[in-house]
Amino acid sequence: MSVKICEVEECSEKREKMGKVMEIMGLPDLCANPCGSFSVIPIHKRPDLIESCAKLINDEWPRSLGARMAQLCNSSDNLPTNLVLLKSDTIVLAHIKITPVPWDVSACFLESVVVAKDCRGQGLGTYLMRHAEQYCAQNLHLSVIYLSTVDQVRFYGKLGYVECEPISIYGKVNFKRPTMTRKFYMKKVLKNPEDDDANAKGR
């Protein structure tokens, strides 16, 4: 999954314009540079980037680097799968983990969604989420996505997620929400491409 950001001949002009925006907003060239490409891939396809990905996640949720890398090494074509957003195929900008839901083979749970701190507010989180949803539907043939969040209900709401009852990814269908928890659980039913084909034929 890759998208061209701009044609090569336009890079110089756009870089200059974005450079001014970068200077005003204090953004690094890594994010402001419009040239190059973004791609979303499973981390196990690029083991050389596992350490960079682990450092990105640890910058948000600190833990042992070795333990984090070991966790990322568990990524596979079968769940769990860790997806990373890359800049120019070499720089890890964001991460998301897709975890199985034991009691529902048609569903998954998204966790550890994180964008590099210097690159937030650029739409990268939305970009990653859209590609993760596409990966879940097309590669994993899943139809429901669950997640939990403390302070990003509005962000996920804009992406079509709605609040739901708490769920567990450890075997039980649901559980009683702890009275002191700050988490909100959300879900989204993925659109089935076959439904669109059927609707198109019916028109």
Describe this structure in words.
With 203 residues, the chain is an alpha+beta fold. It is built from 7 helices and 8 strands. The chain has an 8-stranded mixed β-sheet with strand order 1-2-3-4-5-6-8-7, sandwiched between helices. Helix 3 crosses helix 4. The chain is globular and about 40 Å long. The N terminus is likely disordered.
What does the overall shape look like? globular
Largest sheet, strands/sense/barrel: 8 strands, mixed
Strand order of the largest sheet: 1-2-3-4-5-6-8-7
Distance between the termini: 31 Å
- Residue share in β-strands: 15-25%
| Helix percentage range | 25-40%
Secondary structural class: alpha+beta
What's the Cα radius of gyration?
19 Å
Quick summary of this structure?
By secondary structure, the protein is an alpha+beta fold. Helices cover 34% and strands 24% of the residues.
Descriptive tags:
single chain, 203 residues, alpha+beta, eight-stranded mixed β-sheet, 7 helices, 8 strands, 24% strand, disordered N terminus
List the helices and strands and how they pair.
Layout: E1 2-4, H1 11-25, H2 29-32, E2 37-42, H3 50-60, H4 65-72, E3 81-87, E4 91-100, E5 107-115, H5 124-138, E6 144-149, H6 153-158, E7 162-163, E8 184-189, H7 193-202
Parallel strand pairs: 5-6
Antiparallel strand pairs: 1-2, 2-3, 3-4, 4-5, 6-8, 7-8
Helix pairs in contact: 3-4
